[in-house]
Structure formats: C-alpha cells, structure tokens
Write a structure and sequence with these properties.
Two copies of one chain form a homodimer. The first copy, chain A, has helices at residues 20-34, 42-51, 56-67, 73-97, 108-131, 138-160, 169-195, 199-226, 229-232, 247-255, 258-270, 275-285, 288-307, 314-331; strands spanning 101-102, 105-106. With 335 residues, chain A is an all-alpha fold. Chain A has a single domain (17-331), classed as Orthogonal Bundle (Farnesyl Diphosphate Synthase), CATH 1.10.600.10. Chain A has a two-stranded antiparallel sheet with strand order 1-2. In chain A, a hairpin with a 2-residue loop joins β1 (101-102) and β2 (105-106). In chain A, α3 packs antiparallel against α14 (314-331) and α8 (199-226) packs antiparallel against α13 (288-307). The longest helix of chain A has 28 residues, at 199-226. The two termini of chain A are 33 Å apart. The mean pLDDT of chain A is 92. Chains A and B meet through α4, α5 and α6 of A and α4, α5 and α6 of B.
C-alpha cells in the first residue's frame, strides 16, 4: 500500500529496513575507505567509522536512487562521501563541546585528545572530497565541496552567536539550513543527479532534503528542551546552557512583552541554578515549543509535495514515510 | 647571469621579488575568495588570510609556471588553492599547540577560542577544495584532495608518535614528506600540469617540490634546536619538549651506544630542567645536527638536478636560487 501524502499513518518508522542490503554495502564501502588511509591512521579512522553516524544521509541517497530509477553503485558512493563529511563534523563537534561520549562509547577526543581529533576530522574531510572526484564530474565535486563548506559556515555562525539575544529567526533558519539542511539536500539532490533526473526534479529533491534536514534540526532542538535523557540516550538541556538560542526560545522571545523579555534575557544570560528549567517551563506554558513543532510539521508537508511527482515505487513511498516518522517524533514534543 | 647548479652563489635570497606582481595577484585573489564566505564569517577568514602564511607555495607555483612557458591565471589560482589549505593547517596547528601568537599577532584560537578555530580551519579546507573544481579538471581536484589528505595524515602520525623512542628515520621522512613535502610537491607538479608539460617533467617537478619541502622541514627542525629566538622571531626549543623526535635527534640516537641511548632516552622522557639543552649540546658535540644539515643539502642537490632540464629562463634560475638560499640557511645551523 502506498504511503499517503495527506493522512498520517500510524507508527511510522524510519525505512532503514527497506534499504538494509544497500546500507550494508555502504558499511562495507566505508570500511574499504578506511584502508585508503595510512596504516598508522587506519585504527583511528576505523574507530570513528564504527562509532558515529546513523547513516541517514546514505539512506536518503539510496531511497532517492530507487525513487528515480534504480539504486546504482554511484548512489552508494555518494552516500559514503557525505557520511564521511558528516563523521568529520561529528569528530570536530565533540572537540568543541568537550563531549566525552557519543552513542555510549568514548569520543575520539576523549580517547586520544583534541590534537589528534582535530587532524582526524581534517583527514576525513579531505578524504571525502578526494573520493568525490571518483565520479569524474566537476559538477558533483563542486556541489559536495559547497555542501561541506556550508556545514562548516553554519557551525561557525552558530558558535559566534552564542548568547546573542539579538539573534533573529531568519538567522536561526540560515544557521540550521547550513549546518544540517545542506548535507541532507546534497544527499537527495546529488542522488537524483546521479540518476540523470532533469533540473526541475533535482531542484525538488534539493528542496525535500533541505526542508527535511531543517525539520529534523528543529526536532532535535525541541528534544533538547523537552526530551527525557533515559529515552534519548544522550545529555539534554545543553543548548541554552551553551547559549544556543533555538526556535522554541526564539518563539518565546518573540511573543514576550518588553518586561517579559528583560526577565528572560536575564535568566538566559545569568543562568542561576533554576533559570534554565524555568525558561523551558515558560516556553512550554506559552506554547512556544508547540509553535516550533508546527513550523517543522509545515516543512514536512512541503517535503511531501516535493516528492509527490516521484510517486509510484516503494522508495518514493519511503521518502514520504520518513516525513511521517519525523512528524510523529515532533508530535511527542508537544506538552 | 644564470644561477649555477653546482657552485653556491653568495647571499642568495628567496626570489619573492622576481614574482612580486604575480604574488600581488595571489593576495588580491585570496581577498576575493574571502568574499565567497558568508558575510558573518568574512572577518574571521580575512584575519587568518592577513596574518598567516609566507606565500611560499604560490611563489613556487608561479615560478614553475614561468619556467614551463608563461605564468597564467591558472598558476595564480592553484597557488591560492594550496595557500588556503596551508592556512587551514596553520589554524589547526595553533589549536593543537595551544599557540597564542603567530608572526607577532594573536592566533585565531587566542582571539576567538578553539571551537571557532576548528570550524574556521574546516571552512578554509572545504573552500579550497571547492575552488579547485574551477579548473574543470578531475585530475587536479583529485591531486589537490590527496595532497590535503597527506598533510593531515602526516600530522596525525607525528602527533601519535610523540615521545615514541622507537621512531625510525624512515618514519621521520615519511612524516615530513606527508606534512610538508606533499603541498610543496603539489604546487610545483600541478603548476607544471597546468602549463601542459609531459608526464616525465611533471614527475621531476613533483620530485623537486617534495625534496625542497623535505629539506625545508629538516632546516626548520634544526633551527628549533640551534636557532636564536630573537633572530627567528618565534618560540624555539619546543619540538623535544613536545616529544617530537627530529632528524638531528634521530641521528644522535642512531650513533649512540646502548648505554648512551639509555641516558638520552631518560633525558628525553623525564625532561628535568636542564635535560633538553644538554641533549641539544650532545647532539651538536656528536655532529648529529651537522649530519642532518648534510642530508638536507643532499636533497637540495637532487632538486637542482630535477629542474636542470628546464634551464633557460629567470624563473628556472630562481628555482635553482631557492635551493642555494635554503642551503645557506642550513649552513648556518652547523656549529
């Protein structure tokens, strides 16, 4: 039965199972890439490859491959390239955050220190961009390079604007489109390009990936405020502590009176022991989290329209299914 | 008068002046590239571009361009690409070393912290690799990507083998060929490729760059032991303190008796207040620094043979002149 584009199905899951054999090939290809590194470095790269990344970007590339013809070696390869870039950013994120564990295992910086981890991320970046040349297409090299640059730039702007209470929603969207949307969009658009789709379809696929990545980031940002650490399995309530102003908080600041805004600013900047839970409580109470969820749901609706013209295969259905899966997660953030 | 390939000329300088107009174009192009970044990031990138790098790699690309035909826009551009990669590695090196100043001004990490500097280096890397796609040649993209990966891998192995007294000379040469030789070799070989030289000439140019970079690194390593901080203008005597075993020290360990080696190992590992100056003193006394200088001079002699077939222009002369300039600097390390 085809996934509906208008009615939410019950209990959607991320369609990893549909593309399990292809994702196994991605894993094998990543392991093969590890061997391209100097033997002295292999163990470090292997550790990072084994412990980070949920392979969402490769899964998207494979699903688009299926939805636009058939899954080819090129779809596997572009998934590997983008996942290596994603892993490089995770290694560097963990350094910046001083994180000691990721997905229950020690981070690279916890195991080997910051110096080696900086270089390890760099080596993964340059390897990914070198691997992208295997397609023999300048267009693809350029688009991969640009996506990689966007991710870094998005993270820089985010870092630079911590605790900056003048951050606008337009700034927020620009940041998350760059840091999360760009690599999702590269996965879906480049997979289409590799299938030989026309420019209009490539653009729609780009839009699907960009909006899906943006909605995913909004979900992640809401989860940081309202999630349960036991369920999510990672440390939460860290964004505000680090001065990251996310959509729910921006919603709250937007709807506040001037007097209220002064109170919020003080709590965000001063961070007395109870300030952050109280700010989250107020955000819930005022419906600011709910409005962020609604924004993300709106983006997911647009995603479904983007891939509507591709309908007619289990892969296209799965692209729709992902949006319902994420919508289900977002709904759980409402309180 | 053509530079002699056998007799050292007096007081050779690095031939920056010969290519001053072209290096000015490199500077202008670097400034133009800064504008390709998001406006929020421009000031950071501009700061790094203004405060780091001596433009040796662009100068090499330009000289090879002149020596193999004429200097074109492409030679300027490959110089810019490689200099951006070099700058990215400097930004990340400063984080790893905890350096607070470079060339008399605060480092990026000193100004804005490690987090932003990690990302800034990443953005420079990905921008350089994106810019490389402008040549429209997969071969060039691949070679730039590989050079970039080599640099990172060389630094990783070096970091990983700090205080490892089993490091062999072959390991040392592999490390410095990767971390310094690869980018020099990319500058000279790719400049030749862009002039349309044949494969044999490209290979000789690659050899010239690789050996020049290696000799330059040996010089830098000797200077760290015997240089004067006032003259050099940077903190010296840091390699051993950080556990970096360089060629003079490896020479010393190699010629030591077992009993002597035990004494050296103890001094290197324990690092009591006087240990490092004493190790340097012994290295001088035993001629270990001298032998490192001789090794570098031998490499420079090979460099001259590599570019001999190109003789016949001021640019080819300048490629020879560089080797004599570096030989002069190395000679001053003898004590």
């Amino acid at each position: 039965m085809a996934a509906s584009t208008t009615t939410p199905p019950r209990n959607s899951t991320f369609p990893f199972d549909l593309v399990r054999p292809e994702l196994d090939r991605v894993e094998a290809a990543i392991r093969e890439q590890v061997r391209a590194f100097d033997p002295a470095i292999e163990p470090y790269v292997a550790y990072v490859c084994n412990t980070s990344g949920k392979r969402i970007r490769p899964a998207l590339a494979i699903l688009v491959g299926g939805a636009t013809g058939s899954v080819s070696d090129d779809h596997i390869k572009i998934g590997v390239v983008l996942e290596l870039i994603h892993m490089a950013t995770l290694v560097h994120d963990d350094i910046m955050d001083g994180a000691t564990t990721r997905r229950m295992v020690p981070t690279a910086n916890a195991k080997w220190g910051n110096a080696l981890s900086v270089l390890l991320g760099d080596a993964l970046f340059s390897h990914a961009l070198t691997l992208a040349t295997d397609f023999g297409s300048i267009d693809i090299c350029r688009k991969v390079g640009r996506a990689s640059r966007e991710v870094c730039q998005g993270e820089i702007i985010q870092t630079q604007r911590r605790f900056d209470l003048s951050l606008g929603k337009d700034d927020y969207f620009r940041i998350i489109e760059m840091k999360t949307g760009a690599l999702f969009a590269a996965a879906t658009a480049l997979a289409g390009l590799l299938s030989g789709v026309d420019a209009a379809t490539e653009e729609r696929l780009y839009g699907y990936g960009m909006k899906l990545g943006t909605a995913y980031q909004i979900y992640d940002d809401c989860l940081d405020l309202v999630g349960s650490e036991e369920v999510v399995g990672k440390t939460l309530r860290t964004d505000l502590a680090k001065g990251k102003l996310t959509l729910p908080i921006l919603n709250l600041l937007e709807s506040a009176t001037e007097a209220q805004r002064t109170k919020l600013n003080k709590r965000i900047l001063d961070q007395e022991p109870l300030d952050l839970p109280v700010v989250v409580g107020i955000a819930e109470y005022e419906g600011a989290i709910e409005r962020a969820v609604d924004t993300a749901l709106g983006l997911l609706e647009e995603c479904r329209r983007d891939v509507e013209p591709l309908a007619g295969s289990v892969y296209a259905d799965a692209l729709v299914q992902i949006t319902w899966f994420l919508a289900g997660l977002l709904d759980k953030c409402r309180r």
